[in-house]
Amino acid sequence: MLFANATLPDxxxxxxxxxxxxxxxxxxxxxxxxxxxxxxxxxxxxxPLVDGHIHLDKTLLGLPWVPNQATGSRVADRIxxxxxxxxxxxxxxxxxxxxxxxxxxxSGTLHMRSxxxxxxxxxxxxxxxxxxxxxxxxxxxxxxxxxxPQSGILRSPGTAELLDAAIAEGADLVxxxxxxxxxxxxxxxxxxxxxxxxxxxxxxxxxLHDSGETGIAALAAIARRTEAAGLxxxxxxxxxxxxxxxxxxxxxxxxxxxxxxxxxxxxxxxGGATIPPLKLLHxxxxxxxxxxxxxxxxxxxxxxGDMLQRAMMIAYRANFRHDxxxxxxxxxxxxxxxxxxxxxxxxxxxxxxADFVVVEAGSLAEAVASYPRxxxxxxxxxxxxxxxxxxx
Length: 392
Ligand SMILES: [Zn+2]
Prior knowledge:
binds zinc ion; 12 helices; alpha/beta
């Protein structure tokens, strides 16, 4: 199969020669094309989108609208609200999670990291549901699973053992949540998380909403433990609002600690919170990456899983305007996220899987700013979605 006249992200024009599900070669656009070639007519070809932070088990996508039930704006209020929604839920997480996977696939996401709730009420139930989803879509999307202690670890006795069991049953990473804000004990919380990571040889991804000096202390402790455990480049902190709530010199010092330890930072460009200074972090060598976070669930009524639109939202919240800034936002939802997820052989190059997304845009920057409809989503050389709709 030849995808002719593709404009690559660097602006160059090539024919993409696909054989056996891989890119065999990028041919000069002056070379002749046969009758069976698919002429892209200069459309922009992007690498597959990567969602570095999604919650497949929480979404209510496809169900009748559920009003948000939080009675306050603290993390603890939202955890309580989610428990109420869970109690009345009648449709399995595997079904709504599949609805979300189909939707993100149509928008060009071929890799994702999903956090999955684990606590002493749910046990491993949600994990089992999302393991089914992962199996079902195995040929189309790669799904990495984080065992996520949504109710805390210390305040939900038994959760530490469940997190450990989750890894044994197929979760890929161990998660954490506000060691001080939720569990009230930085060392005990991180000790459990890193203890499991070391024992099981897995990476870590911690939700950190804790702000100000509390959050900064947590980031420093995470960097220290990452180095001590030899987990460099296998640890991420999601949200890290603290970095956006302290003076620049404190953010810079913390950025250096994170860069040295290889701790990545995820932001989804949220409203109502101080987002981390993404450019500053990037300039200090910290890997910054993006994700959707909550989509139509008890936490947020918003979201659709479109990572190109997410790049726009991140750029908007970060007050990015120049093309090189929009390129950073794009990197966060593609190559940077792919590095954090440890994806081998990613990108549009000879030898890589023939996975790509075709859009109508004159440049990468325009693609971020306008997040156009995906003309084609190609997986292993096969068209899986056309004009934003999955091909049956
Ligand atoms: Zn999250």
